Here is the input.
Amino acid sequence: MLKKILFIDRDGTLISEPKNNYQIDHINKLFFEKNVIITLSALKKLSYLFVIITNQDGLGSKSFSHKSFNIPHNFMINIFKSQNIEFENIFICPHYSYDNCLCRKPNLTLLKPYLNNNLDKKNSYVIGDRLTDIELAKNIGIQGILYNKKICNWLDILTKLTPIKRYAIIKRITKETTINVELLLNKKGKNIINTGINFLNHMLEQIAIHGGFLLNIYSKGDLFIDDHHTIEDIAIALGQAFSKALGNKRGINRFGFFLPMDESLAQCSLDLSGRPYLQYYVNFKYQKIGDLSTEMIKHFFYSLSYSMSCNIYLKATGENDHHKVESLFKAFGCSLKKAIKIVNNIIPSSKGVLN
Here is the structure.
C-alpha cells in the first residue's frame, strides 16, 4: 500500500525559529507555530504519516550541545504525542553548510528508506520555510509547500491537503413534482437518470458525461398534463445541487466556453458569477424532439441559470433539430467542466466572493 508522507522541517515550520542564533537550545525558546497541532491532527485522520527532517547547524559542538538541543526537542515531541501526533522518523543533519556533507537538506541521503515504490509521490509533500525544503521536494520527485505564517500558514496547508468533496443531494417536492438529484463533481461513473422524459434523460446525461462528473436524477411529475412542471423543477433542483456542491467556489476556473456536431454548431459561454442571466439564440423547426418539447429547452436553461446563479450564453445553428439540441447540451457540459475545475486556492473575483 502506498504511503502518504509529509516530510516536515522543524525550526520555523513546526516550531518558531529564534532570530538571535536560529537555535532552540533552551526550553524557554520553544514556541509552536500557530494551528500546527490542529492541522496535523486533522491530516492524521486523512492517513498522512509524518517525518521530521531538519538541519541543525553544529549540533554536538560546544556552542550547541546535545543536551541543550534534546531538552526542548523532547518536550516538543512529548507535546505532540499528548495530542496523538507521532512522527514515524526524525532525521537530523548536525553539519554546517560549508562542511559539504551528504546528509544536509536538500540532499536525499537521510531519506533513503523512503525513496522506494511505497511512497505515494502524488500525495506526499515536503513542508518547510526555506527554499532548501522546496529543492528537497524536487529531488524526491514530490510537491513542496513553502510555509509562511502570513502567506501559507498551517490552516492554508490543511485546506490545500484536505480533499474537497463537492457533493450534493437535493430533494424538491411540490404538488406537481417530486425531484431527487445527487451530484458528485469529483467523481465519474454510471449516471442514473430517470425523468420520465426519455430525450431529456439523454440530454442530462450529455451534461454529466461532458462535464466530467457523476449525476443521478429521479423525477416523478404530472406528465399527463405536459412536460413543463417536470422540466422546470428538474432545472431548479439541478441548479441548487450545483450551488451546494460548489460551495464558496474557492479555486474554480469560473468561466467556460463550444462545439460542433455534424452540421450544427453550438456555443456556450458560462460564468459562475453568483448572478443569474440567460442569453439564448436557438430556433427549432419542430415542437417536439422525441418526447421533449423544444420550447422547454430555453426554459430549462433559464430556470437552471437562476437556480445556480450563473450567466449562460447559448447559441446553436444547424439544419437538424436533434443535432442542435444535443450539441447545445454537450457544449454546456464542456463549458461547465472548464468552469468548475479547481485551478488554485483563491476565489476568482476581485470582490472576494461569488454570490
